[in-house]
């Protein structure tokens, strides 16, 4: 069995969504300063780095990340789908409609935009592709087994279209009848080190275990 890491390590150079707070990792107690041990103070918004959004991110009555049990973060029928997008493009139903997804419980969309994370962070943050609310509604209506959706961009909503982005998140999180369960959303995924040819057996998401917060940074593992 092989494991592949699909999440980024958080450090002070990690890209962070425009309008949020830069992560800071500051030495506190240090052996080099005479202490007998090392400690650090970490200041970070809960949507920094690879992170998983729960419905409470946009819906006050929705589940928080700490409301989920471990089994709900394990996906045994994942699909990593190549869905190339240019800066600012929006994934629509047409981009997904020909893809067989019966039984899929976790859908990760590889847009190729991850190349900008190291190559041109300004483009990565301000021109990221997103997914339309109609596409999410279509997925939830037609493939109710899907419980998790992720992308290799800073957000599933395009930074340049805030109103559409709000609708996109609400489409993922609402609990309307006739749809599958509200989705978990994974953003800022690292998908450049895995391909559709890899035999992915399962996806495991490990969020930071912090009470009360809507969403959390996470480690994402592909089991091959």
Architecture per CATH nomenclature, i.e. the level-2 architecture: 3-Layer(bba) Sandwich
SS summary, helix count: 5
Low-confidence stretches: none
CATH class, named Alpha Beta
- Beta content comes to 15-25%
Assign an overall shape: globular
Largest sheet descriptor? 9 strands, mixed
CATH topology: Glucose Oxidase, domain 1
Radius of gyration: 18 Å
- The residue-averaged pLDDT reads 96
Detailed description of the structure:
Helix content is 17%, strand content 24%. The protein is α/β, with parallel strands linked by helices and 224 residues long. The protein has one domain: Putative cyclase (Glucose Oxidase, domain 1, 3-Layer(bba) Sandwich). The strands form 3 sheets. Strands 1, 4, 5, 6, 8, 10, 11, 12 and 13 form a 9-stranded mixed β-sheet that branches. The protein starts with a strand and ends with a strand.
Layout of secondary structure:
Blueprint: E1 3-5, E2 24-27, E3 40-43, E4 51-53, E5 74-75, E6 78-82, E7 90-91, H1 93-96, E8 106-110, H2 115-119, H3 121-126, E9 130-131, H4 133-142, E10 148-151, H5 162-173, E11 184-187, E12 202-207, E13 215-223
Parallel strand pairs: 6-8, 7-9, 8-10, 10-11
Antiparallel strand pairs: 1-13, 2-3, 4-11, 4-13, 5-12, 12-13
Helix pairs in contact: 4-5
């Amino acid at each position: 069995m092989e494991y592949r890491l699909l999440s980024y390590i958080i450090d002070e150079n990690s890209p962070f969504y425009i309008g949020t707070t830069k992560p800071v990792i500051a030495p506190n107690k240090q052996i080099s300063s005479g202490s007998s041990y090392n400690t650090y103070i970490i200041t970070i918004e809960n949507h920094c780095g690879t992170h998983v959004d729960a419905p409470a991110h946009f819906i006050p009555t929705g589940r928080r990340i700490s409301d989920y049990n471990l089994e709900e973060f394990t996906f045994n029928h994942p699909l990593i789908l190549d869905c190339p997008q240019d800066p600012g493009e929006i994934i629509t139903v047409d981009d997904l409609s020909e893809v067989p997804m019966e039984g899929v419980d976790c859908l990760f969309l590889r847009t190729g935009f991850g190349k900008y994370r190291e190559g041109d962070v300004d483009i990565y943050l301000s021109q990221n592709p997103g997914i339309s609310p109609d596409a999410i509604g279509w997925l939830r209506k037609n493939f109710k087994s899907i419980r998790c959706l992720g992308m290799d961009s800073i957000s599933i909503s395009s930074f340049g279209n805030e109103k559409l982005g709000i609708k996109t998140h609400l489409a993922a999180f609402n609990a309307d009848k006739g749809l599958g369960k509200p989705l978990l959303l994974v953003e800022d995924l690292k998908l450049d080190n895995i391909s559709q040819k890899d035999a992915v057996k399962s996806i495991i998401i490990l969020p930071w275990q912090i009470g009360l917060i809507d969403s959390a940074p996470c480690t994402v593992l592909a089991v091959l």
